[in-house]
Design a protein that fits this description.
Blueprint: H1 4-12, E1 16-21, H2 25-35, E2 40-45, E3 55-59, E4 65-70, H3 71-78, H4 95-101, E5 107-110, H5 112-129, E6 133-138, H6 141-145, H7 148-157, E7 161-166, E8 178-181, E9 191-196, E10 206-214, E11 217-223, H8 226-238
Length: about 240
Amino acid sequence: MERLRDQLDEIEARRKILEVHTGRDRVAAEFERQFSTRNVRVVRESSPLSGGRGFVIVRDADREFRGALDIDHFRAVLSPEIHPPWALEDAGVDYSDLFEFLENTLFASYDRRQMLAASREIEERAWRTDAGTLFVGFQSSTAFDSQVSVYERLVRDRTLTITIFVEDEYDERIADRIDVVSDAGGEIGAFWFVVFDGGGSDMNKCGLLAEEREPDRYHGFWTYDPERIDELVTYLRSLGGA
C-alpha cells in the first residue's frame, strides 16, 4: 500500500516535455517559470504562426504525443477562476478537459487560490456523479472551518458521503454523512488532497495531491487514473476513512 509520499515521488520521477509554440518571449517565459521542475522540461518552439497566441504540446519522456491545447486555454489551468462545485458547469470553461490535459504531470509553486480552483473541479465531478465518497485532507481544523459550508451543501443536496482528515483535533458539530478523522497525524499535515472514488464508475474517479514545500507554495499533481485513485482510497481508508 503506497503512502501519499510514495504517490507524489512516483509522479515526480516521470519526466515530461512541454513544448511551447509561440513567437512571444513573455508567454514562453511565463510557462518556463511555472513548469521548470525536475520532471518537466519546457522547450520553446518559435516557428512562425499564422495567427493567435500559439499553443502547447505535452509529450512523455519518449517524445510520444500526449495532447495539445491553445495557450489561452492553457492559461485557464495556470490561473483558473474559482467557482463552487455546483456552479462550475455554468462557468463558461470546461475545466475537466483542461485538467485532464495535464493529468499526472507535476505542477510547481501553485498558491492557495490555484489549489482551491483545482480542488473545486474534482468536487464538481462528485457533485455531477451524485454518488460515492469524497476524501479531503486539511492541514488544520481552522482550514477546514473555512470550507465547512461547501461540504455541508454537497451532502445536503447530493447523496454523497465525505470523509475529512485533519491533522489536529476537531470536535465541532457537523452534518450527517460527513465523517471527520481528526488527529490523523502522519503525513496529513504536509499534504493537500481531494480524492473522489467515482461513485462506482472508473470514468468518474479523480484526485488531487500536493505537498506544501514552502509557505503557500504547493507541488503536486492531479489524476484521473482509476488504479491510482484506488490506491489512494485504499490508503486513506486505512487511516480511518469510511
